[in-house]
Specification:
Blueprint (H helix, E strand, L loop, with lengths): L5 E12 L2 E4 L6 E2 L9 H11 L7 E12 L2 E10 L5 H4 L4 E3 L4 H4 L13 H12 L8 H7 L8
Parallel strand pairs: 1-5
Antiparallel strand pairs: 1-2, 1-3, 2-6, 4-5
């Protein structure tokens, strides 16, 4: 007899500083335990973030990008844009830079028609979306509203 699948969330946290855009997690996403029936996926994301010392004040944007089947699990993928003042690696030593070399792995992001100043997070989001099998997108205006000035290009 076949069993049922459980649902888990994974969170990819990113941050920016004067040196660039960083994958805060290091090499892998932060994964929750299976979600209890009396809980909610968004609440579980908050638990995962708190487990990694991130408060609601640290999160500038949280977005569910996609889902996928992974063995006996359904994984809901989230991206969290987090912010703390100063250099990212002083807060998260395991952080990895997200740069142009990522293009050789995932390919270039799709072209974006700009109606406002571009947030560098838009390109980073496209890269991360490809890596995490995302199927939805955040628009540039939505990012521009949530991004602090240092995320915006000149």
């Amino acid at each position: 007899m076949c069993g049922t699948m459980n649902v888990q969330v994974e969170v990819w946290a990113v941050a920016a500083d004067t040196r660039g855009i960083w994958l805060v997690n290091g090499g892998d996403a932060w994964l929750s335990a299976p979600i209890p029936q009396d809980s909610d996926p968004h609440f579980e994301v908050e638990i995962v973030l708190r487990r990694h010392a991130l408060s609601a004040d640290d999160v500038r944007m949280l977005h569910s990008t996609s889902w996928r089947a992974d063995g006996p699990h359904v994984i809901l993928t989230y991206i969290a844009v987090v912010d703390r003042s100063g250099i990212v690696v002083t807060h998260w030593p395991q952080a990895l830079p997200l740069g142009d070399e990522l293009l050789t792995v995932v390919g270039p992001p799709p072209p974006i028609r700009l109606t406002r100043r571009l947030c560098p997070a838009t390109s980073m989001y496209s890269h991360t979306r490809s890596v995490t099998y995302a199927s939805s997108r955040i628009t540039t205006p939505q990012l521009a509203q949530r991004c602090r000035p240092r995320w915006q290009s000149t």
